[in-house]
Amino acid sequence: MDKNGKRVALVTGSTGGLGTAMCQRLQQDGYRVVAHYRNPDKAKEWSDKMKAEGFLFDLYAADISDYVSCGEMIAKIEAEIGPIDILVNNAGITKDKPFHKMSYEDWDAVLKTNLYSVFNCTRQLIDGMRERGFGRIINISSVNGQRGQFGQANYSAAKAGMHGFTKTLAMEVASKGITVNTISPGYIGTDMVMAVREDVRNQIIAQIPVGRLGGTDEIAYLVSFLASDKASFITGANYSINGGQHVY
Ligand code: CAA
Known about the structure:
Layout: E1 8-11, H1 17-28, E2 32-37, H2 40-52, E3 58-61, H3 67-80, E4 86-89, H4 104-122, H5 126-132, E5 135-140, H6 143-147, H7 153-173, E6 178-185, H8 191-194, H9 198-205, H10 216-227, E7 238-241
Parallel strand pairs: 1-2, 1-4, 2-3, 4-5, 5-6, 6-7
Helix pairs in contact: 1-10, 3-4, 4-7
Bound molecules: acetoacetyl-coenzyme A.
């Protein structure tokens, strides 16, 4: 909690479409929101835009793919703001290519940013959460971790790995007041999805029964609910939010 008794929520990759919506929702729901970023220029522009919209976040930088960098960021946040109660592992990138064209670098970057980051942050927060007897860890995976997607062997592997992690950690920390859950968004109207070639994207949208891309706020509402006390019996779960694209 911060010095005013507000629960502290760290959202990684906060300057992206989903991260922004999560930060805004969590702040509106009374949390002290710490926004992680990588690119200082983008973060400055984002922060100015957020202020203009009436949102005030604490911004902290780290290379999320690097264990030491994450540890330094977390130590700084905890010294300056207070212990982190809620961690949203949201940072992620794509490097889409059919597997036979995928380089080691494409594989390595996506695994390190999307999956190693989950270890890097969670491992360096979990002791404090265990000691305090409260914690919420929310991992943002993807429909493509559940079902696979042409061109995303790296991304699908990382996103599937996130839920494997969720299931085990949920069991290990359940008795300590800590819940661990996964959200698997489908195709949401973010820059990441809009970067998919238009013809490919239109084919994908045609496969979504609801008939449209999801809204970022449609993911953020669930993040905020899972962070709350009301969700204390929910752990180890994987929530699909995909407009019916993948039903199983
Ligand atoms: N299914 C089956 N075959 C496909 C295919 C598909 N979806 N896409 C391409 N192919 C085939 C093509 O027909 C072509 O076949 P031939 O060689 O026989 O002609 C072959 O694969 C090569 O196709 P391309 O020339 O299109 O390959 P490319 O290298 O230019 O592009 C790609 C491949 C960029 C990966 C493209 O397929 C693509 O953009 N796929 C979508 C990836 C995607 O959905 N990314 C999601 C990003 S957003 C996100 O990740 C958020 C989230 O969590 C949902």
